[in-house]
């Protein structure tokens, strides 16, 4: 288990920031690497050595590409093969062995070998993709080889985004590793972003999670409206959980002098799934586009090849999210919608009124939250039957009504918070003389409320920690 939230907020983070700022500039990255490894080792005392191995191996292979140009492709293959082998072994070996057991006789499938399922190192999907982006960009000539193992290690292991992203490409912070932007303005900006992310996670995501947890275990007991509203709560929990963590990571990055890529851009205002995936988990979409979709040919080799490329990318995207076949179904669900939009649906949507385009997107996003929840096929079919099969369930039950009314204020806050309305209002008044003090008061209140919630809540999962 990583640091508890309160230990991180009031012990690890202040000590890390204090040491980082008090040390002379030439020692800062070394200290940041040390702090990041301590952060990871606290939760992964054994797997931290796996991360150190990955750092040193890929740093050496990058140097080899520079020194032995004729061996460049071979070194790239070695790096990609080793990184993917580690990811597959720790994340997917159990899934593949369990699936293989189905097709084997009992005398073979009962062997101890088939029970092999190593514990998943926290954040392995994120830091593996970061390492691979560095090696591939060095091979392509888009990034300079990093000669310092300290700077390369800092890039891979930097604690703000180590556990759950965003996926930071080396080319985006290559210069920042040498010259981070240290200033009071950057620190203030980062502090505000961190507090907003913390509030998103602790106040909004956790409230939606508490609501949905009351009903998600037994969909057969739900009413029709209860089933729909629970899925809406799941969708809101997922957004505020992950975007909250991303905001905290980006805020901590700014406090340390780095600008990480923005990972969310109000995805729930989208009017198509094509637009949605330009706004949701932007760093992951960029990674698959740059390192899988374009190398496969993208849309440059005809419509049939483009559809195949979309299916490949989204199958991989689904499996990236989790070592369960339900995540493959989730990926193919998105692939189907995106292919339909590419073929004809975008033209239909453009001719439709704005509210219909938005309703279409939100409808399929609600279904998306059911698939993403990772339940069994029978569990999902039961839920869908409650939602769509007449006579299966009552419209609304007294229990569902009580919970919905009790959480209605939280739903309204979440609906508003998933739009750019609050941000636009703040920007409108940012130049007023009173805006600065009001901002500080609001952030202070949000921080105090978040800390108070952390001390009292028993429900505080980070959904994307499992990836």
Provide key terms for this protein:
19 helices, 2 domains, 467 residues
Describe the structure.
The chain has helices at 5-22, 25-43, 48-67, 72-101, 106-109, 124-140, 149-157, 170-178, 184-213, 224-255, 273-279, 282-293, 303-321, 325-351, 354-372, 377-388, 398-417, 421-428, 435-456. It has 467 residues and is mainly alpha-helical. The protein is globular and about 70 Å long. Helix 1 packs antiparallel against helix 2 (25-43), helix 4 (72-101) packs antiparallel against helix 6 and helix 10 crosses helix 16. The chain has two domains: 5-180, no CATH class; 185-466, no CATH class.
What is the averaged pLDDT score?
A: 89
- Please give the share of residues in helix: over 70%
Task: Determine the number of helices (DSSP H or I, runs of at least 4 residues).
Answer: 19
SSE class: mainly alpha
Terminal-residue CA separation? 14 Å
Strand content bin:
under 5%
Shape: globular
> Please, how many domains?
2
The poorly predicted ranges are none
The description of the largest β-sheet is:
none
Number of DSSP-assigned strands: 0
The Cα radius of gyration reads 23 Å
Pattern of helices and strands = HHHHHHHHHHHHHHHHHHH
